[in-house]
Amino acid sequence: MTPDRAPATPSSSASPVHTQLHAWLVALDLPDDQVAGLAGLLDATELAAANRFAFEADRRRHIVAHAALRDILSRYTGIPLEALAFESGPQGKPFLAEGLSPVPPSFNLAHGGELALVGVAAAGDVGVDIELRRPIPDLDALARRVLSAAEQDQLASLCAGDRLDGFLAAWTRKEAVVKAIGVGLQLPLDAFDVRLDPSGAAELLAMRAPEGQGRWWCVAFRPDRGYHAAVAVRGAVVSGWRVVRWEGPGKPSSVDGVDMTLAAG
After folding, report:
1. Which domains does the chain have, with CATH numbers?
2. CA atoms of 191 and 193, how far apart (whole Å)
3. Sorting pLDDT into bands at 50, 70 and 90, what band is 101?
4. What's the distance, CA 7 to chain centroid?
5. Residue range 89-116: mean pLDDT, rounded
6. pLDDT of residue 11 exceeding 60
7. Are 263 and 23 in contact, with CB atoms under 8 Å apart?
8. Which of 125, 154, 178, 252 sits 20 to 30 Å CA-CA off 160?
């Protein structure tokens, strides 16, 4: 796993909030009995969403990802995972229901292929993305549709063998930024520029959209062979970060006992 990191960029004179960032990796393809057990942890809304998938594999992965999210958030809040309740912003970004926790963590979930990624921080707006590396037909045409002019220039500067990874680096970083802001497709993808060199630092180079202004921190890493992942945090200084593998509900992890509500820095 190779991390690429970039510091936050100050955008105001206000005293920043410091936080740790934990990036949880979740293996989604579990045995039938484990998936059935995890389904029992979800509420009616989550189960209904799972049952809307046309393919059984997608339904199962949705169940595992959302059960893992509940378990992860339970560790930080101390609330039993079955008692957690969620609300959504205007564009569908979820957050913990008001009143559940005095200092609710910020979080975001994404899944791609056989893995899910959950980003958790004590403060700021968190966005994550994870993508399985696979061939993309007509990559140049897709890049013209979803990358800014500056990003297209960066992509064109890469050798042919690096362009797929360059595009996926750009896509995951851009998706993480969009999900952190939480306005969905209302934010044009060409309204900001990220650094897309797959071997370089993850960095937000420019933000032209008013709704995207703020202090930003980004990190990109390759969690497993064949995957690209990125995390973006707005509105906080990330003093440290780590990747954690989720082993199942209640099972030990390397961050047990860490208080995410405490300032770090």
Report:
1. 3-245 (3.90.470.20)
2. 7
3. confident
4. 17
5. 92
6. no
7. no
8. 178
Residue for token pair 């930024």: 177
Strand 106-112, strand 115-121: pairing: antiparallel
Cβ-Cβ contacts under 8 Å for 159 (sequence gap 6 or more) = none
Q: What amino acid is encoded at 105 in this protein?
A: P
Residue with tokens 């799972």, as numbered in its chain: 50
pLDDT at 107 over 80: yes
Structure tokens at 159: 């050798």
Q: Which amino acid is at 145?
A: R
Sign of the C-alpha dihedral computed for residues 86, 90, 92 and 95 taken in this order: negative
pLDDT number for residue 199: 81
Give the pLDDT band of residue 253 (cuts 50, 70, 90): confident
Number of H helices, E strands in the chain: 6, 12
Tokens of 264: 């770090």
